[in-house]
């Protein structure tokens, strides 16, 4: 899972659930923790008027692509789709499932 020369690592990812989702936020958290086992984990979560968030801490030597592939895999498997957006901790850009390749 380590980064290779030229790959960008990320140590934090924020996930914002701003649309309706077919599962509880706790189910999303559990699935993320399972998929990220050994490379990261959900370390914070909250819910407000405009949605819910999950904060993911990642081991420092893991590439951003590996982390985001796993996160978007969970969002897809749970049927969340574009009701979630993801922001790697190294930038200001939010990414939706439909934008990830």
List the helices and strands and how they pair.
Blueprint: E1 12-17, H1 25-35, E2 40-48, E3 51-58, H2 64-77, E4 84-88, E5 95-96
Antiparallel strand pairs: 1-3, 1-4, 2-3, 4-5
Helix pairs in contact: 1-2
Name the strands of the widest sheet in spatial order. 2-3-1-4-5
What would you call the shape? globular
Poorly predicted ranges: 1-5
Characterize the main sheet: 5 strands, antiparallel
How confident is the prediction overall: mean pLDDT? 91
Q: How would you describe what is shown here?
A:
25% of the residues lie in helices and 30% in strands. It has two helices and five strands, in the order E-H-E-E-H-E-E. Strands 2-3-1-4-5 form a five-stranded antiparallel β-sheet, with helices on one face. Helix 1 packs across helix 2. Residues 1-5 have low confidence and may be disordered.
In short:
The chain is of the alpha+beta class and 101 residues long. 25% of the residues lie in helices and 30% in strands. It has helices at 25-35, 64-77, and strands spanning 12-17, 40-48, 51-58, 84-88, 95-96.
What labels describe this entry?
25% helix, 101 residues, disordered N terminus
């Amino acid at each position: 899972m380590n980064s290779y020369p030229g790959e960008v690592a990320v140590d934090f990812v924020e996930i914002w659930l701003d649309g309706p989702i077919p599962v509880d936020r706790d189910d999303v958290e559990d699935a993320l923790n399972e998929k990220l086992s050994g490379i990261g984990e959900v370390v914070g979560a909250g819910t407000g008027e405009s949605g819910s968030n999950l904060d993911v801490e990642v081991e420092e030597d893991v590439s951003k692509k590996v982390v985001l592939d796993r996160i978007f895999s969970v969002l897809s498997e749970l049927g969340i789709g574009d009701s979630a957006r993801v922001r790697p901790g190294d930038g200001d850009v939010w990414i939706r499932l439909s934008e990830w390749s």
